[in-house]
Design brief:
Distance between the termini: 37 Å
Oligomer: single chain
Bound molecules: 5,6-dihydroxy-NADP, zinc ion
CATH superfamily of the largest domain: Dehydroquinate synthase-like - alpha domain
CATH class of the largest domain: Mainly Alpha
Strand content: 5-15%
Strand order of the largest sheet: 1-8-5-4-2-3
Shape: globular
Structural class: alpha/beta
Radius of gyration: 21 Å
Order of helices and strands: EHEHHEHEHHEEEEHHHHHHHHEEH
Largest sheet: 6 strands, parallel
Number of helices: 15
Length: 390
């Protein structure tokens, strides 16, 4: 295990009514706010009004970038960059899910440069500066509210690219679980699958974590498995929404990854799917994950799945490792496709095999192969995993 520096500098206002601190928080960063939001859910559920009055009462000037798509597109970033310059914006306030927060993060960086913001993603130009970002989270899923990452799509090049920079980490995030009461069944399920996947990528990586961190990850997974079904049955169950929301932040804020070399697998595979087909991120992950696990299962990896099964899913301790591993993957599939009700195959969502080779090629280009996860993966392995999803 490597040395690490713990540094998660996000001020989190967690719980009902914490929005009353939004004005005082924003005032720390200047006078002119760019409010970024999506397709209108915050107008329907009243959150827009609460945010706008906090801004007004704090005496701040409000500009808006609305209509950010799920799987946010580069044109929104370009529009945001222009607005920031024209209105001399001091800070960017994201009110929404991962798509809105990711868009706000890259707009905040784009505001500080004079080149096209796709250069950060397509050319890998490093982000050296960004306006302060503040978020009000409305869906438990990506953890963007507490991490340094953003994922942006470019429909012209059919790319969906992730970037990270400490400058994009939100200065403050408002996590009020009641704002997620209006998230529909499908998005709640996709969010749960995404949180689980963030933990899987690290829990199942080749290198083991500290025992303390493995127990923490098992706690996060148990939380999602316990509370996602409750949130589906009772969308306004505070305990369920609060547990999912806090789990979403801790699954990807860096804590569980510290000190460990990890190659993420299902995420790059999913990002190619959503780049080409614009599918929901959590759905793509749900379809890919059990197939990736099945593909990696052998005598050398069975014990890892057995541990997951016993400690997270509560399967019998005395089963042989291979039997226990198979049972764990079956139980996970049942959770994703039956309990959460997500589609089981790519075929079901209208995706066939025609782009599999190109997607695998894109994932492998520019990377050191094999990709070292549970099992080393070459391009043909990635193609095989996609095929298992059909
Ligand atoms: O657009 P609005 O009207 O806000 O509606 C959204 C959208 O249609 C809706 N929604 C959100 N909160 C709601 C709500 N509807 C009713 N009530 C509410 N309270 O849900 C839909 C999906 O929203 P979106 O923001 O796209 O969801 P999510 O948070 O899952 O974000 C997905 C994006 O984040 C990226 C994904 O790839 C994808 O582009 N990721 C970002 C990561 C990061 N920054 O660290 C890591 C992740 O692995 C992921 O890749
Ligand atoms: Zn994810």
């Amino acid at each position: 295990m490597n040395n690490f520096i713990y540094d998660i500098p996000v001020r989190v206002y967690f719980g009902k009514g914490q929005i009353e601190h939004l004005g005082e928080e924003l005032k720390k960063y200047g006078e002119r706010v760019l409010l970024v939001y999506g397709g209108g859910s915050i107008k329907k559920n009243g959150l827009y009004g609460a945010v706008a009055s906090e801004i007004k009462d704090a005496g701040l000037e409000l500009s808006e970038l609305s209509g950010v798509d799920p799987n946010p597109k580069i044109h929104s970033i370009r529009e945001g960059q222009k607005l920031c310059k024209e209105k001399k914006i001091d800070m960017v306030l994201a009110v929404g899910g991962g798509s809105v927060i990711d868009c706000a993060k890259v707009v905040a960086a784009a505001a500080c440069v004079d080149f096209d913001p796709w250069d950060f993603l397509g050319k890998g130009v490093p982000i050296e500066k960004a306006l302060p970002v503040i978020s009000v989270l409305t869906i438990a899923a990506t953890g963007s509210e507490m991490d340094n990452c953003a994922v942006i799509s470019n429909p012209d090049t059919e790319d969906k690219i992730a970037i990270s920079s400490s400058h994009m980490v939100p200065r403050a995030s408002f996590l009020d679980p009641t704002y997620t009461y209006t998230v529909n069944r499908y998005q709640t399920a996709c969010g749960a699958a995404d949180i689980l996947s963030h933990v899987f990528e690290i829990y199942f990586a080749k290198e083991r974590s500290l025992y303390m961190v493995e127990c923490f990850m098992e706690g996060l997974m148990k939380t999602v498995i316990r509370y996602a079904p409750v949130a589906l049955r009772e969308p306004d169950n505070y305990e369920a929404r609060a547990n999912l929301m806090w789990a979403s932040s801790w699954a990807i804020n860096g804590f569980i990854e510290y000190g460990k070399n990890v190659t993420w697998i299902c995420h790059p595979l999913e990002h190619e799917l959503s780049a080409l087909y614009d599918i929901t991120h959590g759905l793509g992950l749900a379809i890919l994950t059990p197939r990736w696990m099945e593909y990696c299962l052998d005598e050398t990896t069975a014990e890892r799945f057995r541990q997951f099964g016993v400690n997270v899913l509560g399967i019998e301790k005395d089963l042989a490792p291979m039997e226990a591993a198979k049972k764990s993957i079956e139980m996970l599939s049942d959770f994703l496709f039956h309990t959460l009700g997500l589609s089981r195959t790519l075929t079901e969502i209208g995706i066939d095999d025609r782009n599999i080779k190109a997607m695998a090629e894109k994932i492998c280009s520019g990377r050191t192969l094999p990709m070292e996860s549970l099992k080393p993966l070459m391009q043909e392995d990635i193609e095989a995993i996609y095929r298992m999803c059909l």
